[in-house]
Design a protein that fits this description.
Blueprint (H helix, E strand, L loop, with lengths): L2 H15 L4 H4 L3 H18 L15 H14 L4 H17 L1
Helix pairs in contact: 1-4, 1-5, 3-4, 3-5
Length: about 100
């Protein structure tokens, strides 16, 4: 996968959930947060840093956290394999929502 493919998948997911109200997030927030944490972990691994927990904020902030972690991952210049794994994770979550 390419960085562009990953970014497109993230943008589609953000576009799908960015307008959600709190009640709509309730059954899905944990899954999206797990994705955010996974992207943060991939970025840390790509930069040879230790993994750190992402703060769990309100569900309505998850699209912003997703964007930041996606940007961090892209800035870390991950391997194609990591981009493929991350893109598949984003796509899986998007389809499940």
């Amino acid at each position: 996968m390419t960085a562009g493919t990953f970014d497109t998948a993230v943008q589609r997911l953000i576009g799908q959930v960015n307008h959600w109200e709190t009640t709509r997030w309730r059954p899905h927030g944990d899954a999206v947060f797990a994705l955010v944490q996974s992207l943060a972990d991939h970025a840390a691994d790509a930069e040879n840093r230790r993994r750190r927990p992402v703060p769990r904020l309100a569900d309505t902030v998850l699209p912003d956290q997703l964007r930041v972690m996606a940007d961090d991952l892209l800035a870390a210049s991950p391997s194609p394999e990591v981009l493929t794994t991350a893109t598949e994770a984003v796509t899986t979550i998007r389809r499940a929502l």
